[in-house]
Amino acid sequence: MKFQAIYICAGLFLLGCGATSQESSSTKVTRGFEVEEAAYPSIAYFTFSDGGGSYVCTGTFVTDRHLLTAGHCTGDGGTATILRGDARDATSTRLRVHPKYQHDRWYETSRYDLAVYEFPRGTAPEVSRIRATPIEGDEAGLMIGYGVSNLLEDSGLGVKRMGINKVTSKHDGKIHMAGQPDGPQLEFASNQSILGGGDSGGPLLYFRSGTHQDIVGVASGGSNGTSFWVDLHSQDSKDFLRSLGIQY
Asked: Contact 68/128 with Cβ under 8 angstroms?
């Protein structure tokens, strides 16, 4: 994810960005729990190239061929290759980035920080749905990503983790949460998880009564102690995804 000091991600911390180099993590769920790779098979860890370097992000299959991720998780190569799970080594055939998103103006256009990689039909081992209704303030969300587990140490990239937190605010087409940027494991119920480098593009799932449900946001960026996701229920998000035939 991207964060501006807010860190900018493609190869940094789970905070806000999520794109990170394969050598140093960019955005991971901090203060979260490791989960088995086979858990949440619709959520993918992938690599893409940009400026001669290789970067990693998280994404979610929302149809059998459409991988939803962040706009900043795209590069000059235009393709993504899955690194883990049943879809490992699958390579995308097409890329669509939200028309209002601009790489060189990430923060100013972060409400549009969405992209969809298209793969051959049947690539997805499982599909996650986008929730029909939005998440509201003070409701809980479950975040999942492959980013760093400790923002202060920039460690733990490439391991699937999940964490829980509550919405602190919603505005400007984004969902915001506040938490703790450091520390290893924390009780799941403590609601302190945030994003880290490498988590960019990962899903925020609606969470209630101990069960996760459908996707409500896509990890974009943050700063120390805060994270934000693109709200999939803003009109701009819905118009973009529906133009690709993704209905919700």
From this structure: no
